[in-house]
């Protein structure tokens, strides 16, 4: 399965996920700037945005699959190798986006002292830029890994299935039911027994990635999850359309990371690529594998830099664009943003200092 310490299906999932993240951020403007849900531009943006919603869950699943298989010998070593290399780019990119936003986007007259105070507050409260929340979330999970990894090693496959089933009920199914009830009755439901902290966050996706990486599901369960994933890819944009028509504004019930359709999309995609691993290893030649590995290794850095590239390009899909114009605009701009981000990362990687300060040594 593993060649040159690279796992091809994991690399391909990373690449798909970073492209999907760029799609999510690029299409957000059209989706939030118009309530004309029958326009071509809205439907193209909704369609691409919907089928890209697997990105964040899959990133957490990959992190769990890779991280929970490592042997942690000491807290100090773990923090030095895993946590600090995330804290450094969090600080760096919070500063970059903070400066860009204050002095270029909103043309602030804030002096240096005021900026430092404002920046410090925003850094602590995750208010510097929209996509940096992921770093806060993954750092928080990484801080639990020295303990969680011991828990995982002590669990049997049956134990992990129990955890994941309970997490699915508490975080995915309960959320879907409560959202549906609210949209039907405008009343929130609160079932106290469902408030179980260990079963309520991204940690579930983290452990799910570990489980799917290390264990093979029974054939019937695998086929069911795979087929539910396919259905969810088609269902999400349609369900979002009808929910938005009902609400009068964009309704993100089926967009969320804990949406039931996003869950099945993410699991189905992970299973699909894992099943294709033997064929991928045999059919993909060495040069293509090296390119896949290079892009995969750069995915974290691309995540950090791509919004800056997108803002500088300022390319947008017009709300009144035709179907062909909207689709072409989206594909071209996504391709340009991805290509520039990747090339920029590789150029910056030529300097070890820049790589460490900007990307925590990744690239």
Automatic annotation (TrEMBL):
The keyword Phosphoprotein does not apply. Residues 8-341 form the Acyltransferase domain. Belongs to the acyltransferase 3 family. It comes from the Bacteria. Pfam families: Acyl_transf_3. This is Acyltransferase 3. Its main location: membrane. One of its GO terms (molecular function) is O-acetyltransferase activity. It is a multi-pass membrane protein. GO terms for biological process: enterobacterial common antigen biosynthetic process. The lineage of its organism: Bacteria, Bacillati, Bacillota, Bacilli, Bacillales. It comes from Paenibacillus lactis 154. It is found in: Cell membrane. InterPro entries: Acyl_transf_3_dom. GO terms for cellular component: plasma membrane. Keywords: Acyltransferase, Cell membrane, Membrane, Transferase, Transmembrane, Transmembrane helix. The chain crosses the membrane at residues 7-28, 40-62, 83-100, 129-148, 160-177, 189-212, 224-243, 255-273, 294-314, 326-345.
């Amino acid at each position: 399965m593993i060649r040159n310490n690279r796992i091809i299906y994991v690399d391909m999932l990373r690449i798909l996920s970073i492209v999907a993240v760029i799609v999510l951020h690029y299409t957000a403007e059209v989706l939030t700037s118009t309530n004309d849900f029958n326009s071509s531009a809205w439907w193209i943006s909704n369609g691409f945005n919907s089928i890209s919603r697997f990105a964040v869950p899959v990133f957490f699943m990959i992190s769990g699959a890779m991280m929970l298989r490592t042997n942690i010998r000491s807290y100090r070593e773990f923090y030095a190798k895993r946590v600090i290399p995330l804290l450094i780019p969090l600080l760096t990119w919070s500063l970059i986006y903070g400066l860009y936003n204050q002095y270029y986007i909103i043309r602030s007259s804030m002096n240096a002292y005021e900026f430092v105070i404002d920046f410090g507050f925003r850094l602590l409260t995750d208010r510097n830029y929209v996509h940096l929340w992921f770093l806060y979330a993954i750092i928080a999970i990484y801080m639990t890994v020295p303990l969680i990894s011991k828990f995982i090693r002590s669990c049997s496959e049956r134990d992990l299935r129990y955890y994941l089933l309970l997490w699915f009920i508490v975080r995915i199914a309960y959320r879907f039911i409560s959202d549906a009830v609210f949209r039907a009755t405008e009343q929130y439901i609160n079932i106290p027994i469902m408030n179980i902290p260990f079963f309520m966050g991204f940690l579930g996706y983290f452990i799910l990635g570990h489980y799917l990486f290390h264990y093979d599901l029974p054939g019937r369960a695998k086929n069911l999850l795979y087929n539910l994933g396919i259905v969810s890819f088609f269902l999400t944009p349609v369900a979002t359309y009808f929910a938005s028509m009902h609400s009068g504004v964009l309704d993100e019930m089926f967009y969320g990371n804990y949406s039931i359709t996003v869950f099945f999309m993410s699991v189905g995609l992970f299973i699909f690529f894992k099943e294709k691993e033997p064929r991928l290893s045999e059919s993909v030649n060495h040069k293509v594998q090296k390119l896949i590995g290079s892009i995969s290794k750069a995915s974290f850095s691309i995540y950090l830099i791509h919004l800056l590239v997108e803002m500088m390009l300022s390319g947008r899909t017009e709300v009144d664009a035709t179907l062909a114009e909207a689709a072409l605009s989206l594909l071209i701009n996504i391709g340009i943003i991805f290509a520039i981000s990747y090339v920029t990362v590789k150029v910056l990687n030529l300097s070890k200092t820049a790589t460490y300060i900007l990307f925590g040594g990744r690239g």
